[in-house]
Amino acid sequence: MRIEEMKIEDAIQQKKPFGTAKQKAIVNLIYTHNWVTDQIRQYLKPYGVTMKQYNVLRILQGAGEPITTSTIRERLLDKMSDASRMVERMHQKGLVIRSTCPNDKRLVDVVLSQEGIQLMDRLAHFSSATEKIAEELTEAEAEQLSTLLDKLRK
Predict the structure, then answer these.
(1) With 90 as the cut, is the pLDDT of residue 1 above it?
(2) Are 90 and 97 in contact (CB under 8 A)?
């Protein structure tokens, strides 16, 4: 049995039953988050970018124009990330171009560099690769899961 197919109790070798179904769901969510994160990290590793950097690349690609680090910070999936430091590392890798914002000299505008655009072109198939993670779910189940996760965050 693959670990992905295991019930959460088996995956974490839990001997006693969970106190409530809600406790079980939260533990399962945390475990599954870590499993999905590991799958994505393994996929991105050969490209030399982290998940957080990939998130910034997607934000910049979607913006289609220079945006500030504060705008990037607002759009990040991981709100605990230090956008300025991440952008600096990505600049050092040649993936982004930074420039002083013409409207406010205190801000820095960021845009994908040619190298960043080329990397995103190479990662164009990433969404189909991530869909493979959820291949056991039907479209209706995936929609239901998203709805439940949205409800959990209310």
Answers:
(1) no
(2) no
Whose tokens are 């950097």? That residue is: 53
> Treating both helix axes as pointing N-terminal to C-terminal, what angle do 51-63 and 83-92 enclose, rounded to 10 degrees?
90
Angle at 152 between CA 150 and CA 154, to 5 degrees: 75
Stated as kind and residue range, the H or E segment containing 22 is helix 21-44
108 phi and psi, to 5 degrees?
A: -115, 125
pLDDT digits (tens, 9 = 90+) for 60-109: 999 989 999 989 999 999 887 788 899 999 999 999 999 987 877 788 89
**Could you tell me which of 40, 42, 39, 77 has the C-alpha nearest to residue 58?**
77
* Coil vs helix vs strand at 3: helix
Query: Whole-angstrom Cα distance, residue 105 to residue 88?
Result: 17
- Which pTM does this prediction carry? 0.81
